[in-house]
């Protein structure tokens, strides 16, 4: 990820994640100028002199491979694709202007044994911040530091960690002790009082009524609280956000049904999309004997894509022209196989009846997380008929995929199931995942192994 100006973004514009819009426009974060794997780095001036840190992924896409030598650091929690190993030889600064010696931690990929070791890449970024604070404290006479985290940075990191870990919900199983430590650090060390002052200055992007509502809900202070906020700031009484209320506020924004239902099929597929390249090698002897003679190796390459959506599967399938949009997007991204991974919170009554979480009009009916709701994961697989059939069998029967607890939804099982229109020789299968803890981080390596034969 490299610093960039928004004018370098290329059309067509992608609808931003709704919870990021909320963070930036309603809780006052500065403009975030950067580009990721889907942006055109070729438009960035003097790219040969930039250093690149890959965040939340660990391989440049093929169209950016000419920048491979610029990668100096990786911060990620996905399956290690094994590229950019020279990043570990780069040196990064402790923040005092003096670079460190080359550090293997520059290639920080927190993933092992098909499991992410942290629930959020922002936890890894926060650990960098914690490391800097430890370094700064060690340089003082007292061994401590009173410096606080900038509130915009603290809020951005905290909000994303809470979302990624489902606020450390045990049932979701997405958080780890390192995430919890990062949350506690940000809650304790961020200058939240200064954020409240920033919310009131002239640069605020939020309307006054909405602003007061946010302050009351998240910080428990506001104009209607008898002046407690002013008293708190004046007396230096520390205020902190209610992390549960902050999480729910951002979660509801991210899963906003109006936002997702108003999105076209193509945008729904690409708003949270990752492309994975695969290669498989086949070796053959030059003759039929066993003399260990010349062996010919052939390598075949391919790619698949995985789109994460916060819609029930019936709602994504019911989008206008979904089948055509999916095939065209596969051609656009040059992949042979597409998986659409759905995650929703559904009422416990609906979770067990195969209802799919949609209302009578096919609109998303996402139920927010309560004691009466449970996470539900589903998949749609799209590709050539024989490949889809083999993939369904693999995910359902292979021992390495058993933990997903895959069940195939038969066409007759769902009343009113809308089957997308696909070209001849193509197929689409709908699967329900019994284990809601298996996210894209676990599904992607399995699909990769299917294609590579590992």
What is the strand content?
15-25%
Question: In angstroms, what separates the terminal alpha carbons?
Answer: 31 Å
**Total separate domains:** 2
Q: Helical segment tally?
A: 15
Structural class: alpha/beta
Shape: globular
Oligomer description: single chain
* Helix/strand order, N-terminal first: EHEEEEEEHHHHHHHHHEEHHEHEHEEH
Largest sheet: 6 strands, mixed
Briefly note the CATH topology name of the largest domain: Diaminopimelate Epimerase, Chain A, domain 1
Radius of gyration: 24 Å
CATH-derived architecture of the largest domain: Roll
Strand order of the largest sheet: 8-9-10-11-13-12
| Portion in helices | 25-40%
Summed over residues and divided by their number, the pLDDT gives a mean of 76
Describe the structure.
The chain is α/β, with parallel strands linked by helices. It folds into 2 domains: 186 residues, no CATH class; 196 residues, Roll (Diaminopimelate Epimerase, Chain A, domain 1). It has 15 helices and 13 strands. The protein has a 6-stranded mixed sheet, with helices on both faces. Strand 6 and strand 7 form a beta hairpin. Helix 1 crosses helix 8 and helix 2 packs across helix 3. The chain is globular.
Question: What order do the helices and strands come in, and which of them pair?
Answer:
Layout: E1 2-3, H1 18-26, E2 34-35, E3 52-55, E4 71-76, E5 107-109, E6 111-112, E7 115-116, H2 121-138, H3 151-164, H4 177-189, H5 192-200, H6 208-219, H7 228-234, H8 243-254, H9 257-261, H10 265-270, E8 273-285, E9 295-309, H11 313-317, H12 322-333, E10 337-347, H13 348-351, E11 373-384, H14 385-397, E12 406-408, E13 426-433, H15 440-452
Helix pairs in contact: 1-8, 2-3, 2-4, 3-4
């Amino acid at each position: 990820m490299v610093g960039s100006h928004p004018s370098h973004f290329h059309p067509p514009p992608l609808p931003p994640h709704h919870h990021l819009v909320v963070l930036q426009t309603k809780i006052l974060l500065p403009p975030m100028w950067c580009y990721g794997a889907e942006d055109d780095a070729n438009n960035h001036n003097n790219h040969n002199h930039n250093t690149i840190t890959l965040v939340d992924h660990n391989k440049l896409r093929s169209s950016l491979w000419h920048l491979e030598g610029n990668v100096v650091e990786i911060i990620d929690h996905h399956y290690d694709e094994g590229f950019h190993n020279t990043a570990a030889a780069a040196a990064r600064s402790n923040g005092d202007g003096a670079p460190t010696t080359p550090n293997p931690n520059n290639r920080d990929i927190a993933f092992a044994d098909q499991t992410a070791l942290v629930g959020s890449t922002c936890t890894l970024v926060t650990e960098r911040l914690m490391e800097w604070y430890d370094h700064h404290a060690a340089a003082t006479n007292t061994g401590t530091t009173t410096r606080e985290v900038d509130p915009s940075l603290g809020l951005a990191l905290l909000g994303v960690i809470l979302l990624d870990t489902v606020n450390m919900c045990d049932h979701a199983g997405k958080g780890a002790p390192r995430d919890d430590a990062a949350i506690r650090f940000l809650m304790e060390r961020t200058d939240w009082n200064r954020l409240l002052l920033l919310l009131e200055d002239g640069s605020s992007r939020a309307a006054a009524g909405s602003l007061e509502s946010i302050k009351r809900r998240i910080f428990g202070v506001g104009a209607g609280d008898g002046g407690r906020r002013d008293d708190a700031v004046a007396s230096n009484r520390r205020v902190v956000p209610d992390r549960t209320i902050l999480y729910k506020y951002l979660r509801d924004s991210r899963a906003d049904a109006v936002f997702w239902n108003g999105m076209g099929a193509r945008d729904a597929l690409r708003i949270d999309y990752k492309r994975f390249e695969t290669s498989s090698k086949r070796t053959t002897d030059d003759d039929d004997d066993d003399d260990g003679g010349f062996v010919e190796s052939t390598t075949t390459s391919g790619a698949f894509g995985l789109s994460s959506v916060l819609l029930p599967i019936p709602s994504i399938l019911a989008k206008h022209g979904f089948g055509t949009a999916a095939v065209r997007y596969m051609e656009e991204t040059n992949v042979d196989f597409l998986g659409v991974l759905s995650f929703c919170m559904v009422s416990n009554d609906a979770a067990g009846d195969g209802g799919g979480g949609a209302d009578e009009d096919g609109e998303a009916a996402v139920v927010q997380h309560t004691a009466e709701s449970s996470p539900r994961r589903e998949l749609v697989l799209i590709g050539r008929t024989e490949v889809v059939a083999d993939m369904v069998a693999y995910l359902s029967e292979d021992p390495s995929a058993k933990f997903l607890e895959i069940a195939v939804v038969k066409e007759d099982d769902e009343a009113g199931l809308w089957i997308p229109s696909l070209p001849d020789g193509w197929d689409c299968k709908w699967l329900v995942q019994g284990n809601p803890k298996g996210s894209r981080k676990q599904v992607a390596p399995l699909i990769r192994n299917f294609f590579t034969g590992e």
